């Protein structure tokens, strides 16, 4: 059964479910990324978590990549993976 630690936070008035994923996530085709995000959304809802699901991953050289609604880009552009890891507070499993 897959298990992922996530950060369920409220930032700038929005609930966010930030999901750190493996570095390889960024190299996957768009349709695979979309499938993964949809699975994370379903699993989050089943766990009673509300908010936008935002996958993040190490893109190398100390940088973090993410897939988020445009309105959240300024927030995520200022966030580091270390900050995400420090805020892990829930576990999703399916």
Provide structural commentary.
The longest helix has 17 residues, at 30-46. A 5-stranded mixed β-sheet has the order 4-3-2-1-5. The chain contains 3 helices and 5 strands. Strand 1 (3-11) and strand 2 form a beta hairpin. It is of the alpha+beta class and 94 residues long. It has one domain. The mean pLDDT is 96.
Could you provide a short overview of the structure?
The chain is of the alpha+beta class and 94 residues long.
Task: Give me the secondary-structure topology.
Blueprint: E1 3-11, E2 14-20, H1 30-46, E3 52-60, E4 63-66, H2 73-77, H3 81-86, E5 90-93
Parallel strand pairs: 2-3
Antiparallel strand pairs: 1-2, 1-5, 3-4
Strand content: 35-45%
Q: In the residues, how many domains can be counted?
A: 1
Shape: globular
Note the main sheet. 5 strands, mixed
Query: What strand line-up does the widest sheet have?
Result: 4-3-2-1-5
Radius of gyration: 12 Å
Count of runs of 4 or more consecutive helical residues: 3
C-alpha termini separation: 6 Å
In sequence order, what are the helices and strands, one letter per element?
A: EEHEEHHE
Number of strands: 5
Helix content: 25-40%
- Uncertain segments are none
What structural class do helix, strand and pairing data support? alpha+beta
| Average pLDDT rating | 96
């Amino acid at each position: 059964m897959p298990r992922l630690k996530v950060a369920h936070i409220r930032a700038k008035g929005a609930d966010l479910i930030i999901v750190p994923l493996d570095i390889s996530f960024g190299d996957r085709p768009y349709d695979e990324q979309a499938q993964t995000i949809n699975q994370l959304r379903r699993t989050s809802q089943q766990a009673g978590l509300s908010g936008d699901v935002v996958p993040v991953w190490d893109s190398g050289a100390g940088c973090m990549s993410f897939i988020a609604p445009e309105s959240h880009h300024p927030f995520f552009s200022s966030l580091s993976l270390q900050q995400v890891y420090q805020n892990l507070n829930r576990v999703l499993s399916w």
